[in-house]
Amino acid sequence: MLQREYEEFKIRVNGLVAKAVKIPDEGWVMQDGTPWPGNNTRDHPGMIQVFLGHSGGLDSDGNELPRLVYVSREKRPGFQHHKKAGAMNSLVRVSAVLTNGPYMLNLDCDHYINNSKALREAMCFMMDPNLGKTVCYVQFPQRFDGIDRNDRYANRNTVFFDINLRGLDGIQGPVYVGTGCVFNRTALYGYEPPIKPKHKKLGFLNSCCGGSRKKTSKSQKTSDKKKSSKHGDPTVPVFNLEDIEEGVEGSGFDDEKSLLMSQMTLEKRFGQSAVFVASTLMENGGVPHSATPEILLKEAIHVISCGYEDKSDWGAE
């Protein structure tokens, strides 16, 4: 009896899959009967469908469910969409406007997680009180089971996984392999982790006699701060998390002109979206309380448009 019911259920599920794979001759239609705007995969507007929004929903135990939003960026024949890289850029922007969670998970369209504890393991690194702010991403490189160990062409990638990645693990970190990765959002923006102050070791005379109490001048402190902010590649603009915590207005701007220059720099880097630019300065995530869902949706459509990246650093940095 149970076996028969299972077989019937299996037939129904497979039938739904086959029906979904086959595209109707007239194209897909929405519930109200209007044609779906994305029937032409290479020429369609930006689309967002909110399944679970700010009001959210509850599971069987009464716990709030996470937000669920479908996003499809705008594509036009005259614009280069840059495939997966462009999709990631759009995902970074639209998620910042709608939810602005501090962490992001990237998976290929045909990949899934077979270990429910994987994300919790990633959070152990991301939320570490001592090292969390220095972690860019935690990834789970894909490896395949059941492959013939003697078949050199079976894509086992022994050298890549067992030698290259582990060798790079001690030199800042291994390369991003393209899927199965949890990112720190601020790292994707190009912000660098906070710089820890260097504590000088006291010598014998200093420890016994107390050493000198020479005060550091204000100009010297400013000079040291500028030097420390350039510890990375000098060709790449550097933004420290210490400045993000204080916000644009609290970063040492003395007049309106300096503040305007800072805003122009942020717009040049992140694009012409005040909501998105503001979200990049919120280290702990979240969206402005004053923003309504309607405003956020309108802004989300804007940041996934084809021309949004023009005259910005998207795709260049």
Automatic annotation (TrEMBL):
It is found in: Cell membrane. Pathway: Glycan metabolism; plant cellulose biosynthesis. GO terms for biological process: cell wall organization; cellulose biosynthetic process. It comes from the Eukaryota. It is an enzyme of class 2 (transferase). UDP-alpha-D-glucose binds at residue 83. It catalyses: [(1->4)-beta-D-glucosyl](n) + UDP-alpha-D-glucose = [(1->4)-beta-D-glucosyl](n+1) + UDP + H(+). Coiled coil: none annotated. Residues 211-236 are annotated as: Disordered. SUPFAM superfamilies: Nucleotide-diphospho-sugar transferases. InterPro entries: Cellulose_synth, Nucleotide-diphossugar_trans. Its EC number is 2.4.1.12. Residues 221-233 have a biased composition (Basic and acidic residues). One of its GO terms (cellular component) is plasma membrane. Keywords: Cell membrane, Cell wall biogenesis/degradation, Cellulose biosynthesis, Glycosyltransferase, Manganese, Membrane, Metal-binding, Transferase, Transmembrane, Transmembrane helix, Zinc, Zinc-finger. This is cellulose synthase (UDP-forming).
